[in-house]
Write a structure and sequence with these properties.
The complex is a heterodimer of chains A (about 260) and B (about 400). By secondary structure, chain A is mostly helical. Chain A has one domain (about 5-260). Helices cover about 75% and strands about 0% of the residues of chain A. Chain A is built from eleven helices and two strands. In chain A, helix 6 packs antiparallel against helix 11 (about 235-260). Chain B folds into two domains: about 10-230, Rossmann fold, CATH 3.40.50.300; about 235-405, no CATH class. In chain B, the strands form three sheets. In chain B, strands 6-7-8-3-9-10 form a six-stranded mixed β-sheet, sandwiched between helices. Chain B has a four-stranded antiparallel β-sheet with strand order 2-1-4-5, with helices on one face. A four-stranded antiparallel β-sheet of chain B has the order 12-13-11-14, sandwiched between helices. The longest helix of chain B has 17 residues, at about 175-190. The chains are: A mainly alpha (about 260), B alpha/beta (about 400). The interface of A and B includes residues 6, 13 and 92 of A.
């Protein structure tokens, strides 16, 4: 399904996402706060009990995973918001315009990726202030790379959200989505515990979680190469998986969105 | 009609939409729209008006048939079609979290208007619809009429050759309705925009439209100017009302014999509640589970019609709204009004009254009027359009339509 792309259409849909995000201050605050509760309570509370994780604190171990959580939830819900666009009618306004659906959905995906990544950047800064990362030149470079990684991860998950939102036409599916998609993706991403300490079946499940590789990449950026459990080339494997997932989900989301009835 | 020409800007050929493989929402309709005219689709809810517009605007793929808009085929060149049309939907399609100006700006950008053109037109249109002073407020703070005006302004921003207005004044107060009518006429005359509007208000169609297309059960049943349509009903309409529901049964055979009575139409009784409760009983009897509770919320305007799995008589009743119409369901169904189409009505009234009195029937009131579009509608569809509006029967029918569209079982 090749459709011509319109830069203007992509830009205007992206702009709308940013405006709406920026206006919903309460939502920004509550989702950042939620992630911070996890970081503070688990990082400081459980961290005091666990002590150090090799050469890093539990708080440091936890921080990239919690950033990942913000990215994951922000991006999937952003994608699923196509349901709301349809429900509140604005989708028709976009679809009747003389631009391809592909342009619209790419704008939507970029917008969702941008807003979820802004969320991730806020969390990264706050975690830094809490002392989760060792301040070095390498960290500064790593943080910049991390922003790119965030965009890559979130675009894939917005694609997943769009795919789900284009298939289900129902608000009520939200609860199911949260319980059976979001939470498993989050819990299995290696946020709280490293993959090498869990039983084999759980390890397999974690290896099938694309978010696991996303968190690996973020750790590699923010904590250094030594933090990877996948060996010295772990970053490359993770980057490959995340990119593949991204390509797959963006295509799937675009395809399902293009097919969906108004 | 500003520059009404003989050039067809829209040509529709055997356009058909079948939902779920069985529901014929639009059934092989064909018609032309002349450049510069205002054409009204008149029909009850669910007649297929919106479905037709959705196909012409390329939002919905026809099951068969095709159409051209501004010379472009809706199947082969959807982008070109969408560039030449503006569509103001029946349901609100504004982004409530943006301001009025931002909604217009979004539209201008997505249609590729340059910055200065965009800003100039936004300014003009905001003035046209009198929203300049509220332009920078969030749309969620607007009233219903303001939202509607903003949507109409938005539909015009890219200077479409054809503007589709789906129920432009639905639910608006008379004053706002009147001002929107004026906007629509001004647009048509000043900018030579061809306008297709759907409505189930006959007075709206009569006031605004150069030609009216009456659509019912997905078929075109009439297409002509309002005057021609009314002229088809030669003569005058004499409306009779009785207090006794049995009166019509007695009087009808007597009147039918008179050669000056061109036709007789029964008008559905106003007692919707009684009809509704009868229908509820029937529904309950056959499905065991369609309750009122489930049918109030979430009504939406599906453009789907007819064809379910219900028993014939219930289907007919649902479709026709009232049981006693045309005499072909329940004879004691409670209609107390009838319309006679007669030549020279004023002079026939004494004779009519005498015939009725001689038959021993008590007449409640007599009215005489020239045929209106309401009468035309009644004569071509066998139904009274006024009873189709928002009645419980209509809600019932919509409920069924929505259920069918969702593929749920209506019947046990």
């Amino acid at each position: 399904m090749v459709q011509p792309l319109s830069g203007q259409a992509i830009y205007v849909v992206l702009l709308r996402e940013l405006k709406r995000y920026w206006r919903a201050k309460a939502r920004i605050i509550s989702s950042v706060a939620q992630s911070l509760f996890f970081l503070a309570i688990f990082g400081l509370g459980l961290g005091g009990f666990i002590g150090r994780f090799g050469n890093i604190s539990y708080l440091s171990y936890l921080a990239p995973g919690i950033i990942g959580m913000g990215l994951l939830f922000g991006s999937v819900f952003s994608g699923v918001s196509v349901i709301f666009d349809r429900q509140f009618g604005f989708m028709k306004e976009m679809l009747v315009a003389p631009v391809s659906r592909t342009s619209i959905i790419i704008g939507k995906i970029l917008g969702g990726a941008a807003t979820a990544s802004i969320q991730g950047i806020i969390l990264m800064l706050v975690a830094g202030i809490m002392g989760a990362f060792t301040p070095t030149i390498a960290l500064v470079v790593g943080a910049v790379v991390a922003v790119g990684v965030m965009l890559l991860i979130t675009a894939g998950f917005v694609g997943l959200g769009v795919a789900i939102g284009s298939t289900l036409n129902d608000f009520h599916a939200f609860q199911l989505l949260s319980t059976f998609v979001m939470w498993p993706l989050f819990m299995l991403s290696g946020v709280f515990f490293p993959i090498d300490v869990v039983p084999f079946p759980l390890q397999v499940a974690m290896l099938f979680d694309p978010m696991f590789y996303g968190v690996e990449l973020l750790r590699w950026c923010l904590l250094g190469a030594g933090s990877s459990v996948l060996g010295p080339l772990g970053w490359l494997i993770s980057l490959g998986v995340v990119s593949g997932f991204n390509a797959l989900m963006v295509s799937l989301g675009t395809y399902l969105f293009s097919r969906a009835q108004v | 009609m500003g520059g009404l020409s003989e050039i067809s800007i829209i040509e529709v050929k055997a356009l058909t939409k079948i939902f779920n493989g069985k529901v014929r929402a639009v059934d092989e309709i064909s018609f032309d729209v002349k450049e510069g005219e205002i054409l009204g689709f008149l029909g009850p809810n669910g007649a297929g008006k919106t479905t037709t517009l959705n196909m012409l605007s390329t939002l919905l793929r026809p099951t068969s048939g095709t159409a051209t808009v501004n010379g472009c085929d809706i199947l082969a060149e959807p982008d070109a079609v969408r560039r030449s049309i503006g569509y103001v939907f029946q349901d609100p399609t504004l982004d409530l979290e943006l301001t009025g100006r931002e909604n217009l700006d979004f539209h201008g950008r997505i249609y590729g208007l340059k910055r200065d053109v965009r800003q100039q037109r936004i300014k003009e249109l905001l003035e046209l619809v009198q929203l300049t002073d509220r332009a920078d407020d969030l749309v969620k703070t607007y009233s219903g009429g303001m939202k509607r005006r903003l949507e109409i302004a938005r539909g015009l921003l890219h200077h479409p050759r054809v503007l589709f207005l789906d129920e432009p004044t639905l639910g608006l107060d008379p004053q706002t309705r009147r001002s929107i009518w004026e906007h629509i006429q001004r647009l048509n005359q000043n900018k030579n925009v061809t306008i297709i509007l759907t409505t189930h208000y006959t007075e709206e169609a009569d006031y605004l439209c150069g030609r009216i297309l009456i659509i019912d059960f997905g078929k075109v049943v009439a297409l002509d100017t309002p005057d021609e349509l009314k002229a088809r009903l030669e003569g005058d309409v004499v409306s009779l009302a009785f207090s006794d529901p049995g009166a019509i049964g007695k009087i009808r055979p007597i009147l039918e014999k008179r050669d000056w009575v061109r036709r007789i139409e029964l008008v559905a009784s106003g007692n919707t509640y009684a009809t509704m409760s009868r229908m509820m009983q029937m529904m309950r009897g056959m499905s065991g589970g369609v309750g009122m509770g489930g049918m109030m919320p979430g009504m939406n305007s599906g453009g789907i019609e007819s064809g379910g799995k219900m028993p014939k008589h219930v289907q007919q009743m649902l479709a026709q709204g009232m049981p006693s119409e045309n005499g072909h369901s329940d004879p004691d169904g409670g209609s107390k009004r009838m319309n006679l189409l007669v030549d020279d009505g004023g002079h026939r009234i004494p004779e009519i009254v005498k015939l009725i009195t001689d038959a021993g029937v008590v007449l409640e009131s007599v009215e005489l009027h020239k045929p209106t579009l309401d009468d035309v509608f009644l004569s071509v569809t066998g139904r009274n359009i006024r009873d189709e509006r928002g009645s419980l029967v209509e809600m019932m029918r919509r409920h069924r339509i929505v259920q069918q569209a969702r593929g749920r079982r209506v019947r046990g």
